Every structure is written in structure tokens, then in C-alpha cells.
């Protein structure tokens, strides 16, 4: 076996965003006094949970070479139904089941449209997103619903020892996803779907069923993200998925520049999610106006992805 | 005997191919004109239930609204034709509008320099997008997402998020005025439509742009300058988006931060419908029809009493209809082409 020398260029290509992340942490720790405190770091972790969880769902889909933007609507719809049903006095177990059923339903709808009817995933999932947003608006009539039941809120808003519960959910889901993707055969097939789908078919795997399962799993993960987000905030705000829409995409794309250049992967996505909130927290701590933070986030996204895509050598097209 | 046999087979094959061809032809024309049928039925229903739909004033409103979103739709259509995607159109339109309003009202710059600055900022962002996609080989989805983030910051940073209410009357005239009882935006839209149409259909470059979207590998082999053409589509898109933003600000007489937000989806739906209507040919004309359909459906639904909660439903369904029709019309065409061979 030929051992390849690792060049500096390769390291920058593959781990550029990781170094930038570490550099950002070091910079903020020196520049703003309150940044490197246990409380602040914990806040960053808790804030990035729903973003991270949602991004895991998207990462699964990105690995298969498709995209699924329906989370922009699913999160809001799940939040509205969750808050609405709790307000109507339904038991939490039933409500939880309904929330996940919504995720299952939207995942199934995506699978039917994208795998069954062979529609382009970007457009089809955007359409599903808008259908979900419409359903949300019709369900709650545009009114913000707060959850006041402390027992329900304790599902998310408590600590297990010193660690906040949402962080456990995040890392738990990360462990499951990472294990599934790297250590099991199904995970390898999912990766293969994105690399060469006809080869997967040749081997005798039912590629369409596998792809459908990925979309359904992603739908469930999005529903989970909506569930956590709503309980973390303590209520359902209108279109709560909308602000996450861009951030989740950004986290996943930052992730493609973090570990494996140009390929979606779970550790990268996790770091991407932390990175975005580290920037938010750090720059806010430095007294930067909140609206300049997206500029920094956008620039870092562009630079990170540009570094990993510049050597591709040809223009990448979006499939319609 | 063998001759008669073979001729019988030949005749059989002939007749079968004729019927098959006929069904395919009707299938294709169904997709080509089916969308007109769908909208025709919708218009008929709305017109019967709400006669005001066909009143001159309402049609006027539909046309003005269409002309405002037409520019951004043309831009998106050109980018989509070359196999790209521009998520930043809405924010480019917003940035141009805010910059123009800011220069006009807060800094007291003249009308023409402000307009030029607004258009220039759009072109500049388009250049940035184009360079990222064509030279850095970034996926256009990611590149324009990054641009979107940066522009959000720019939009807020320009005025601190404050809405600009006072704009000079000559700027308002741009959006609300009429010349020979036709609104000004419609003139501009008409001119831009003709230019964009001629560019895409009658020039070499327009044909190349569509070729890149159709088969990039074939383009590369035949020596088409893919890099510069892709770059150009993004610059054109930025340039055209600014028109929509500035005219909307002029019409509302208000410059606010989220002014361009709705453009992204609308441009997208119009451009997608544009690839379906006329069977993927004449995308600029198709996009204009797509924009008219989109605006009139929203208008019709509002007249029927549908609240804002149904608008997302309507737009999502329209997008689904567009991509379904797009996919199946392509499939029917490909099949019949294979049959003919």
C-alpha cells in the first residue's frame, strides 16, 4: 500500500474550517472576557441544539446526494401542533406521538415526491416546506402559543447533574447518527447512494427504498428538532422554522469544509453548528451590532467552502 | 408471399407508430398547453364568483405587480437556464432599493446618481456571485446563501434597520406614475422583456447559456466559454433584480429592510413555470406568463376571501404543479424523441 505524504495544502483543504473554529474560540477568549466561562460555553451548546439536531437530518439527506429543505416548515408545524395540543389539555405522550407522526408524514411525502415521482429534491422539498408553513398558519391562526405546564417544559429545560438536557439530546443523536453512518453497512450504502447510485443498484440493493427511508428518517429528525426548539423556547412562535432555514444549511455546508472536503459528514455538521453560534455569541460579546453577525457568518461560510471547492476544477450545477 | 407478409408487418408497425406518435403528441401538447387550461379554469371560477376580478382596475393591479416581479424573475430564469441557482435575488433587490432610498432621503443625493448606485450595487453583488461560482467552483446554492447572509447584515447596517418613509416625488413617480395612461413600471418591464427575449433567443450567447443548462459536458467539448457565460448569468441576475427592488420601493414609497424578501420565492416560481410553459422553449416569455399566473392566482384567491394563511399553500402548490409539469413534459419529450429515432 502506497503511503501518501500529507501536504499542508491538503490539511488546509480538509480541515480548514476546523482550524478557523479553534482560532475563533482562541480569539474570542482573549478579546472578550466573559466568553470563555462555563456559563457562556454552556449557553452556546444549548442554543445550538435545535440547529444541530435539524442539521443532522439534513446531513443524512445530503450524504445521499439530495437535499431536503422541508425542515423550514416542519419545525414550525410541529411547534404549533405541540403548543396547541398541550394548551387543549392533551396528554404529553399523545402529543409527542402526533409530533413525530407529522415528521413521518412529511418525510413520506418527500420520499413520494422525490424518490417515487423523481422530482428534483430542492424544489420538491421547498414546496413541502411551504405547504407545512401554510398548515401551521391555518392551525394556529398566526397566534403565538406559550406552554405554561412546568412538567412538559421539564422534558427539555432541566439539567442532568451539571449538564443541560438538550445538550445530551444533541450528543446522543450525534452518536446514533455517526454510528449509523460510519459503523453499519446501511450507512455505507447511504454514502454510496450519493457517490454512485447505479453501482448500488448493481450490487443488488434496493436504492429507492433506502433513499425513501433516508427521507423519512430525516423527517423524523426534523420533527424532533421542532419538538426540542419549541420546548426550549417555551412556546410556538409563528414560522419558527424560518430563521433556522439558512442556519441549518450553513451549518451543513460549513461541515463539508470541516472534515472531509466537499462531503457532508456528521462531525463536520456538529462543528459547523457550534461555529455559527460561537460567532454569534463572540461577536455579540464584543459589542458588535447583531445585524453584522450574519456578515461574519456568511464570509466564513464562503471562505470555508471556497477553499474546499476551488480545486474541483469545474463548475458545479444544481440539478432541476 | 414473404413480401406480402413483410409489408403487412410494415403496415402494422406504421399504424402502431402513428397512434403512438399521436398519443405522445397529444401528451406533449397537454403539458405544453395544460397549464393554460388549469389557469383558464381558475380564472373562470374566480370571474364567475367575483365579477370584480375582470374589472379594468384589478387587471391593472395585476399587470403592475407582474411588471415589478418580472425583472427578478427574468434574472432567476437566466441563472436557472444555465444550471445555476441564485438565492440572493431578494436580498439584492432589497439592497438596491435600500441604498437608493438611503441616498435619496437621508443623504439628499439626486435621483439619477441614486438609481445608478442602486443598480451598481446589484451588479457588484452579481459579480461576486459569478466569481464564486465560475472561478472558485462553488456550488451556486452555497455561494448565494453566503451572499444572502452578508446582504442581510448590509441591509440592516445601512440604516440600522430603520424604515425610510420620506422619498422625493420624482422617485414615487417611477413606481406610481403613468405615461399615456400606462404605468411606468410596465414600460420598463416591456423594454427589459424584449431585450431579455432577444438575448436568450436570438443571440449566440443566449443559446450557449441554455446549452450549458442542458448538457455542460457537451458544451465543454464543443469549446463553449462556460466560465464566462456562467459568470455573466449571475451578473445579469444581479442587474435585473435591482430593477424589481427599486420599482417596488418607488411604488410603496417606503424603503424597508425586508422589502425584497418575497421576491426569492416569487421569482423562483415564475422561473420554474417559465421552463414549463412553451415546453421549455422561449423561457423568458414563459417566465413572463409564469409571473402573470402567479400574481393573478394570489390576486384571485384574495378576492375569493382567502386570508394570508392560504398564500403559502397556494405558492407551494403552484411550485409543485410547475415542477411536476416540468418533469413530465421533459419525460414525454425524451420518450418521443427516442421513439422517433
| Portion in strands of chain B | under 5%
Task: Indicate the percent of residues in helices of chain A.
Answer: over 70%
Let me know the largest β-sheet of chain B.
2 strands, antiparallel
Q: Please, what is the oligomeric state?
A: heterodimer
The domain tally of chain A reads 1
Question: What class do helices, strands and sheet pairing of chain A give?
Answer: mainly alpha
Basic shape of chain B: globular
Largest interface comes to:
A-B, 49 and 55 residues
Per DSSP, what share of the residues of chain A sits in E-state strands of 2 or more residues?
A: under 5%
What's the gyration radius of chain B in Å?
23 Å
Query: How would you describe the shape of chain A?
Result: globular
- Portion of residues in helices of chain B? over 70%
User: Which series of helices and strands of chain A comes N to C?
Assistant: HHHHHEHEEHHHHEHHH
**CATH-derived architecture of chain A:** Orthogonal Bundle
Question: How many angstroms does the end-to-end distance of chain B come to?
Answer: 29 Å
Q: End-to-end distance of chain A, in Å? A: 41 Å
Radius of gyration of chain A: 20 Å
CATH fold descriptor of chain A: ABC transporter involved in vitamin B12 uptake, BtuC
The parts of chain B where pLDDT drops under 50 for at least 5 residues are 337-341
Structural class of chain B: mainly alpha
Amino acid at each position: 500500500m502506497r503511503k501518501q505524504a500529507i501536504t499542508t495544502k491538503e490539511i488546509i483543504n480538509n480541515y480548514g474550517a476546523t482550524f478557523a473554529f479553534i482560532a475563533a474560540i482562541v480569539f474570542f477568549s482573549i478579546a472578550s472576557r466573559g466568553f470563555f466561562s462555563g456559563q457562556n460555553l454552556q449557553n452556546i451548546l444549548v442554543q445550538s441544539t435545535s440547529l444541530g439536531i435539524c442539521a443532522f437530518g439534513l446531513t443524512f439527506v445530503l450524504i445521499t446526494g439530495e437535499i431536503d429543505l422541508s425542515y423550514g416548515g416542519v419545525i414550525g408545524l410541529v411547534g404549533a401542533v405541540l403548543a396547541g395540543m398541550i394548551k387543549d389539555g392533551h396528554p404529553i405522550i399523545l402529543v409527542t406521538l402526533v409530533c413525530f407522526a407529522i415528521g413521518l408524514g412529511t418525510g413520506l411525502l418527500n420520499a413520494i415526491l422525490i424518490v417515487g415521482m423523481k422530482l428534483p429534491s430542492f424544489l420538491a422539498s421547498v414546496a413541502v416546506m411551504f405547504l407545512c408553513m401554510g398548515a401551521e398558519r391555518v392551525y394556529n391562526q398566526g397566534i403565538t402559543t406559550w406552554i405554561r405546564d412546568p412538567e412538559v417544559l421539564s422534558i427539555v429545560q432541566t439539567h442532568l447533574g451539571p449538564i443541560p438536557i438538550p445538550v445530551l439530546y444533541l450528543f446522543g443523536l450525534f452518536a446514533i447518527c455517526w454510528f449509523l453512518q460510519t459503523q453499519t453497512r446501511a450507512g455505507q450504502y447511504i454514502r454510496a447512494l450519493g457517490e454512485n447510485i447505479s453501482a448500488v443498484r448493481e450490487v443488488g440493493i434496493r436504492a429507492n427504498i433506502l433513499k425513501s427511508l433516508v427521507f423519512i428518517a430525516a423527517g423524523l429528525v426534523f420533527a424532533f428538532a421542532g419538538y426540542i426548539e419549541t420546548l426550549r423556547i417555551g412556546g410556538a412562535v409563528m414560522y419558527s422554522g424560518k430563521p433556522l432555514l439558512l442556519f441549518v444549511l450553513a451549518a451543513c455546508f460549513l461541515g463539508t469544509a470541516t472534515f472531509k472536503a466537499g462531503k457532508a459528514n456528521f462531525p463536520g455538521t456538529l462543528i459547523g453548528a457550534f461555529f455559527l453560534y460561537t460567532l454569534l455569541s463572540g461577536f455579540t460579546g464584543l459589542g458588535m451590532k447583531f445585524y453584522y453577525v450574519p456578515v461574519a457568518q456568511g464570509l466564513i461560510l464562503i471562505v470555508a467552502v471556497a477553499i474546499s471547492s476551488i480545486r474541483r476544477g469545474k463548475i458545479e450545477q444544481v440539478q432541476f | 408471399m414473404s413480401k406480402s407478409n413483410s409489408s403487412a408487418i410494415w403496415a402494422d408497425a406504421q399504424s402502431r407508430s402513428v397512434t403512438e406518435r399521436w398519443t405522445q403528441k397529444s401528451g406533449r401538447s397537454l403539458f405544453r398547453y395544460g397549464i393554460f387550461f388549469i389557469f383558464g379554469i381558475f380564472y373562470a371560477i374566480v370571474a364567475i364568483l367575483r365579477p370584480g376580478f375582470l374589472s379594468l382596475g384589478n387587471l391593472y393591479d395585476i399587470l403592475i405587480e407582474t411588471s415589478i416581479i418580472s425583472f427578478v424573475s427574468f434574472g432567476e430564469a437566466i441563472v436557472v437556464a444555465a444550471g445555476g441557482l441564485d438565492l440572493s435575488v431578494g436580498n439584492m433587490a432589497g439592497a438596491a432599493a435600500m441604498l437608493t432610498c438611503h441616498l435619496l432621503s437621508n443623504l439628499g443625493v439626486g435621483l439619477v446618481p441614486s438609481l445608478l448606485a442602486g443598480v451598481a450595487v446589484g451588479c457588484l453583488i452579481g459579480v461576486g456571485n459569478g466569481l464564486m461560482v465560475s472561478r472558485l467552483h462553488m456550488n451556486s446554492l452555497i455561494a448565494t446563501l453566503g451572499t444572502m447572509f452578508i446582504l442581510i447584515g448590509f441591509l440592516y447596517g445601512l440604516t440600522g434597520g430603520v424604515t425610510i418613509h420620506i422619498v422625493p416625488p420624482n422617485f414615487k413617480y417611477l413606481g406610481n406614475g403613468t405615461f399615456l395612461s400606462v404605468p411606468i413600471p410596465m414600460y420598463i418591464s416591456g423594454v427589459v422583456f424584449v431585450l431579455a427575449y432577444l438575448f436568450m433567443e436570438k443571440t449566440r450567447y443566449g443559446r450557449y447559456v441554455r446549452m450549458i443548462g442542458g448538457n455542460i459536458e457537451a458544451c465543454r467539448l464543443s469549446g463553449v466559454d462556460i466560465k464566462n457565460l456562467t459568470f455573466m448569468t449571475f451578473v445579469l441576475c444581479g442587474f435585473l433584480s435591482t430593477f424589481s427592488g427599486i420599482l417596488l420601493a418607488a411604488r410603496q414609497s417606503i424603503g424597508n429592510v425586508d422589502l425584497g424578501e418575497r421576491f426569492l420565492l416569487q421569482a423562483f416560481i415564475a422561473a420554474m413555470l417559465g421552463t414549463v410553459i412553451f415546453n421549455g422553449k422561449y423561457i423568458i416569455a414563459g417566465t413572463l406568463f409564469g409571473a402573470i399566473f402567479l400574481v393573478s392566482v394570489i390576486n384571485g384567491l384574495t378576492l375569493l376571501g382567502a386570508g394570508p394563511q392560504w398564500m403559502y399553500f397556494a405558492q407551494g402548490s403552484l411550485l409543485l404543479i410547475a415542477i411536476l409539469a416540468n418533469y413530465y413534459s421533459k419525460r414525454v419529450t425524451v420518450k418521443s424523441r427516442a421513439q422517433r429515432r
